[in-house]
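User: Second chain of the day. Same drill as before.
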Amino acid sequence: MSGKISRQILLYGVVCLAILAVPLLVDNAFLLNKYARYLIFGMLAIALSLSWGYAGILNLGQAMTFGLGSYCMAMFLKLKTVPIHTGSDGLPDFMVWNNVTELPWIWVPFQSMPFALLAGMLVPALFAALLGWFMFGGRVAGVYAAIITLATMVVVNLIIIDQQSYTGGFNGITDLAQFDILGLTFDAYSASTYYLVAVCLTVTLFVALAVSRSKTGLILQAVRDQEERVRFFGYDVALYKTFIFALSAAIAGLAGMLYTIVMEFASPTFLGVPLSLSIVIWVAVGGRQSLLGAMLGAMLVTGVQGALSETEAFLETWTLVMGGLFVLIVLLMPKGLAGAVEALLRRIPRGERKGNVRPAARQGSKSQPHLGGAL
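Assistant: Same format as last time:
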């Protein structure tokens, strides 16, 4: 078992080193920005893999916590631009246009960067913990939990759109300052921003791996497979499910903050149904019970999607092509690409043993028939 874990850690490390080496090979600001977005989607996939693949909680509202983190960062960066993009009383421009006379109380703490960074992860985590406490405490599971998460996301999305005076409404929060910390400025199209995203992805991946390999992770996998039996042994199933649900939300919130830095705006579309369902597709393609598979699945699907949408021959049919590929992968590889690769690796040694043993058995059966059964 320890050898298997060591190989897994080595594999994860090699992949992360390859990701970190990309700026050494790519000297194009636009491509670095695009690749940084793909890495953020990989973080989102890791978040859903933790709750869905390891605990059996299908969260159809994963984009909700992603969007909350995005808005937390956008509020902080917007307040940094107030001396430039402002009206009377130093308010953000869209508040002036909506006749707001003073900075709303909910915006005031976001003048502090430490608060904004903590809020970007804690607000989604606390929101998810509260929702999980109601759901899992009431033993809501399966498709009902998925519907509740989806409905909650839609409600939060509508609230953000409706409160235009405080959230920017349909337009979201734009004209943001660049993120800077410890004297470093992270321009959206710079290698420094790519490294920021890549390092956060690496830390997230290994933290998620540590959780999945811990006692808590093993109990969550048991809950996924036999929830009633785990409850029979005295474990607080609701507490474990709420914990992983909140941790998944915190990771999604971190991804949302990074996405705002890379995209330079926050939008209600970040909390939309299309993005949330896309995350499920990414994880299903990569393999929901593999953190690395889910991450690479998200990067692969979004990369292919971007390439097809930019190709003239597929401008109007790329969504159909992507849908067809997804259906084929789900039908032919129900455990995703990670499951298919694992199954292939398991067959290789077995095939070698068959190639070495069976000819000898056939040869022995001719000369010494009584030895055939032993071989």
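The chain has 16 helices and two strands.

User: Great, on to the next one.
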